[in-house]
Amino acid sequence: MRSTPSGTSWIKCLAAWCCLVAVPLSLLVVLLMPVHLDRGLLSGATTASSSWLGSKAFTCALAAVLPAAVMARFFSPIRYYLRLTTFLVSLGANSFWGVCVSIAMSLVGRGRDINYVVARSFEASTAPLVGVSLRVEGRHHLEENRPAVLVGNHQTMLDILYLGAVFPKGTAIMAKRELLYTPLLGQFMYLSKAVFVNRAKREDAVKVFAKVASEMKRKSLSLFIFPEGTRSASAVPSLLPFKKGAFHLAVQAQLPIVPIVCETYAHVYHAKSKCFDGGEIVVRVLPPISTEGLTSSHDDIQALTDKTRNAMLEAIEDLGRRRQELLSQSQPAARISDERQPLLSSPAPAPAAAGDEAQQPAEGETASATVDPEQ
Question: For residue 148, what are the domain limits?
Fold first, then answer.
């Protein structure tokens, strides 16, 4: 059973791409207007555009893309590379759009909602193009609990789509500092006041999280964190051990934790088997977990980490069982590649508890971050 994007999704996609094109072009026109904007420039641009559209290069590009789009309906590897390319191109376009929006929204005093606008734009403009539809369960938990520390599972780069479907207003994201140097994406994240984590520095952890916690409470800001710290890329409903940075932060700020679980979506996208079939992805927002009265002691943090992880693991396994039933009804096991075969078997047992990974550096114990005091 495959769910395809609805007509409403395609309308949103078209509207989002109109914004993606219109805003940067408008900014370019404003910048050029005082200098060179005259009839000659406009006439030259029109002539150049007409010449390019009639060029052999454009004809060759069109001749290559159209057959690929047709063959993608019948050949999985071609479909994989075509949709992956579409996703990456859209990611780049949205990153550029994000930089423009970040500047504009900061100037009008709406900087706290930059991530919300860009995340929703990316989901609306990209999901229909790659054949993905997202369904969110329990969205009211996000609306009723602000500010909060939001934690979600991390599978692949496709997670950006589910973030776009659930990302609330007034929320920043915590990310590893290396992303700051990624072209376009890094500039957008910097302008949107992301909290960058330098896992090489341990000594600044307490001061950093105290500062972030203070900023969250003072400005009523939420923060989204991937507590696994890296992508799992698993075809089996499971979670990696959690690092404790998010839980130290939630306790210091005395803010609730809101777990967000995205089902294992190897039936939609699986890099090892070169499969990008599209379909429905279900995201479930769980009830908040209170941190009231907890301290930064090892026992309290460990108990909070275990409680959150167990709730998320139970949810992801439940979603896995539901998806398994749907797949077994619509797709015989013989049609599923070996790499994705676990989707038609029972979910794997839970990996070692977070307490067994105590020797791993935790985000909260090894991190330093930068927060813009003006945001």
Answer: 127-366
